[in-house]
Amino acid sequence: MKVFRIRFSYRKAFCTSWLLAFLFLSYWQRIKKNDYAGGSRLVISSNHAEYVLNDNSYIAASSSFENDDLSQSLHSSTGSSTRRRRRHVFNLTEFGAVGDNKTVNTGAFEAAVAAVRAVEGDGGGQIIVGPGIWLTAPFNVTSHMTLFLCQDASIVGIQTESLWPLIPVLPSYGHGHELPGPRYSSLIHGQYLNDFIITGENGSIDGQGAWWWRQHKLRKLKYTRGHLIELLWSSNIEISNVTLRNSPFWTVHPYDCTNVTIHGVTILAPLNAPNTDGIDPDSCRNVLVENCYISVGDNAVAIKSGWDVYGTQYARPCVNITIRNLFARSLISGGVSIGSEVSGGVEDVVVDGLHIWGSRSAVRIKTSTGRGGYVRNISYSNLTLNDVRVAIAIQTDSGEHPNSGFDPRAFPQVSNISFNGIFGSKVRYPVIISGTQEVPITGIEIRNMNLSVTQNKNKKNIFQCSFLQGKVVGYIFPLPCKELVHEI
């Protein structure tokens, strides 16, 4: 009698998992719609753009977006956001808007928002932005409002600098990120909101950031660039089923907000457009980011909580952040980053199902002496990587200071960071964990890692560790550094 033995191959297992991940992405992009109570769930279907940047211009090399058709009229469906139907529906054209990419529609947006504000006490209102290119300067939004972008609708930010108003610096930063003094408003801006939604049929919001990036590069700006969407001191926020493009600075910046959901969103910028982070939860509570595709010129997601003494005085940590099923690319920075502005503290972060390729790093935590604050109770699982320089990076000596007034004795704490299931190929450095004598890193746990390492001549030192305490569990390849105790 013959006995057949199955020989397990980690290489075959990795190849299979990588193939399944891409099959899932392809399937996810092409789902047309799923009906559920009260409406239809609209899912992105797009050929994601790759961008090229040269010295003189920012060029979209390929930006073909295909949107799914709807079987229901807009007035009978609220798209993906069916948790609350709006009793009042307004079409942007009712307020004189023209979607010809020439007419400046700021007044129409402001009038439509005012109409919604007038019915806030009666369930709020929905503003429908139909097909067309709707040029506008920055405008404010209001509570109990849904901004619905139809298929082939694009809200486009005007490139006239004088039409972007200046707003105060944030209290936890005390300083413009790039320059002292005030900062430019975001294209879509809101403060003290409750119940605000941006959704639709994969319409887009385009910041036309190329002009801002060029001015920044030439050092011609007097103030810090504006975000694409910034919501301050708000609650019950949802952004879903839209494409966000070419932000002048960070793309989505919820600041000191509670209950934020971002799902089914595509965020695009040239891969070396400066500081074009995708999603930056900042001193927020209860944030969910899931099923998103982000390809930008800086961090895909960056979790923050204030800058040096301003952040410690403001004392609003970023707490209970969940990131699931994220596909991301960033040549300049990381897939999911924490910091370096963490002076108010960051804790209870869960990252599950991260797919990163062609990036500088997959996950990164960075802080420095003078920051204060803490980063603790962070969990990463199911990371799939391809062509990534650093899989895991944790640094406690990284980050700029807003001014010379930082406290050199304000030492941050970094503890209880776990990783489980890290697989990939073409990874140059699997782990770089660099604590310092003043700021050691404790409670590191790495389980189940299998990374194919390339382009590294010194393979005996591909784990780089200093001033840390922790352990590795299960199968770990490449071999870990001696500072990490190996438990079977």
Automatic annotation (TrEMBL):
This is Polygalacturonase. Keywords: Glycosidase, Hydrolase. PANTHER family: PECTIN LYASE-LIKE SUPERFAMILY PROTEIN, PECTIN LYASE-RELATED. It comes from the Eukaryota. SMART domains: PbH1. Belongs to the glycosyl hydrolase 28 family. InterPro entries: GH28_Enzymes, Glyco_hydro_28, PbH1, Pectin_lyas_fold, Pectin_lyase_fold/virulence.
